Every structure is written in structure tokens, then in C-alpha cells.
Amino acid sequence: MNLSNSVRRFGVGVLAAAALGLAACGGGDGGAPGETPDEVTFSILSAQGQASAGPLWQPLLDDMSEAIGVRVEPHFASSYGALIDDMKTGRTQVAWFSAQPAIAAMEAADAEMIARTLSRDGSDSYRSVLVVKRGSGLELEDILACGQRFSFGIGDAQSTSGTLAPLTFLFNPRGIEPERCFRSVKSGNHESNVSEVAAGVLDVATANTVAVEALRRRNPAMAEQIEQVWQSPPIPEGGILVRSDLDPALKEKIRSFFLTYGQGGGAAAERQVRILAALGYSRFSAADDNYLDPVRELMADQKLSAARAKGDAAQTAAAQRELQALRARREVQP
After folding, report:
1. How many Cα atoms within 13 Å fall on the side-chain side of residue 306?
2. Which tens digits make up the pLDDT trace of 94-148?
3. What is the spatial distance between Cα 99 and Cα 21, in angstroms, rounded to a whole number?
4. pTM given for the model
5. First-residue to last-residue Cα distance in the chain
């Protein structure tokens, strides 16, 4: 597999990543623009499917259904690409995405950002990591020495922490192409990557701090079988997106649900806080898509590295202009 091409092909572009989707009851097309659907389909990215993720999400789904006055049903998917396609084709109108797929959805599916997630400790960022089996003796310098000695698990091509961040922060600056560096390269999500490292199937793999923490809560014995040998700089947390053609009244109900969930005092709020904690979050906060600009910079840097590797002068110049524009915008933002 050619990882650089895979990342460019998508163009843009914790616990299990999740997406929230709206679909018309029975029709699957969400209804006509501006109409309120009969059912909200909440799609969840999970390697292990409904058996493991369903019980964690169902309490929030029940609360969402009550708050917005529309039935909410779960739907499980195994890749970011499928979730983005669902939003693009109108099968879903609301989504949770990590940063890179969120940008893809905004560009390809006419989506807009309404909220961002905060982790259990209240932070608005997380980190990409490399994990190895505890006791293997593998250190970062051994991994970066290449020589096609080790098997490597990388993330979904749309994954911010599983693919974009390790390429941009770790491999590209050293001129390392994973498909040439490692004996084998396998693409998977965070859950499968950490599980296969723990089982000795993979020597080293990407994941993120949210997935590792979720594993500690879900399966402490397995978590003890892995250790981190590298962390990236902070990456913005994911967010809640809605299609711009969603019924405005329903859109506002969904926005209000997330921005008030787990807030205030009393028994109801305390119960919601516990539900969020089980999912790895503390709350949702208001946001627009400007907070994703650091990830846009990573994506532009990746495109620049790929263009230079190809020797494509036109693509190199275009990527340089994009990167400079993003950095200039960052300089003027408060």
C-alpha cells in the first residue's frame, strides 16, 4: 500500500470513534432538505461492534431521543470512509468525527461544526502514540532504524492520530516511508491495532491516548501488555457536525442537547456525567471549524511532503501556498 497516496486520495482527511447520523425512517435518505425525519440514526465507529460499544452509547442515545423528540437508533460502522460517505449522500445528517474526517465531511458533505468534545480530564486535545508489546525490548530508535525488521499497524487513511499525525510528526521529517521501512504494513483502527500488539501479532502500531485509556478501563490485563514509545504533540479533539440543510429547529435541538449534556447540578446531570465518563468525555463545548486549523496545517504539510517526493513542482507550489495561508491565518487569530 502507498500511504502517502492513500492520504492524498481522501484529500482531507477515542474509545471507539463515533458518528451521529440522521436518516428518514425506512427510506434511509434523511427526507427532503429542511424536513424533520422520523428517526435519528446514531452511527458508531467500533471495531468490536454493538456488543461492546452498544451498552456504552445506549444511555446517551436514550437521552438524546427524549431531548429532541425523535427516535434514535444506533448503527455501527467500521471505517471513517463509510461514515463520510453516509453524510455525503444524505443518509446521515449529524456526525461525530475526529479532526481529519471532520474536515473531509465539511468539504464533501456540506457539514458545519456545532460543538467539540472535551476529554475526561477537561482537555480539548489528545495525542497520537506508537505502542509496542511490553517486554519486547523495542525502543523508538530501533523502530526508526527501519531495515524491514518489524510488522507495523497504521490507522485508517482518514485517521488523524492513526495516520496523519505519525506521518507528519515522526516519519516525514526523517524521510521514512513506512511501506519501505517495515517488513509489513497493515491498516486498522485503534482498537484492532492495540489488540494485535498486545497479542504479539504486530510488533508496533499507531493508536492514540484516548484509545489506550479506554483499553485500560475495558481490559486492564490487555492494557498491561502494551507500552508507549512515542507521543505526538497535542491534536484537537473531535467534534459534532450537522449538515447545513438539516431542519433548523431540529438542528438547534441537537446543538442544545450536546452543549447542555452533563451540565448543571442535580441527579440527572450527575448521571449524564457518568455516561460521558464511560465514553471518555467530560462534556461538549461550543465550537466552529477554526479550531481544526492545526490539523489543516498537518494535512497541508503531508501534501507538501508527498509532492516533493514525487518531484511535482506544481503540486509542491500549491501545497506551499496552502500551508503559508494557514500559518498566516493562525498568526492573526486571537
Report:
1. 21
2. 888 888 888 999 999 889 999 999 988 888 899 999 999 999 999 999 999 999 9
3. 17
4. 0.75
5. 41
* β-strands 204-208, 235-236 pairing: unpaired
Residues 6+ apart with CB under 8 A from 7: 13, 157, 163, 164, 167, 299, 302, 306
Total Cβ atoms within 10 A of residue 266: 8
pLDDT tens figures, 125-136: 999 999 999 999
Assign 3-class secondary structure to the chain.
CCHHHHHHHHCCCCCCCECCEEECCCCCCCCCCCCCCCEEEEEEECCCCHHHHHHHHHHHHHHHHHHHCCEEEEEEECCHHHHHHHHHCCCCCEEEECHHHHHHHHHHCCEEEEEEEEECCCCCEECEEEEEECCCCCCHHHHHCCCCCCEEEECCCCCHHHHHHHHHHHHHHHCCCHHHHCCEEEECCHHHHHHHHHCCCCCEEEEEHHHHHHHHHHCHHHHCCEEEEEECCCEECCEEEEECCCCHHHHHHHHHHHHHCCCCCCHHHHHHHHHHHHHCEEEEEECCHHHHHHHHHHHHHHHHHHHHHHCCHHHHHHHHHHHHHHHHHHHHCC
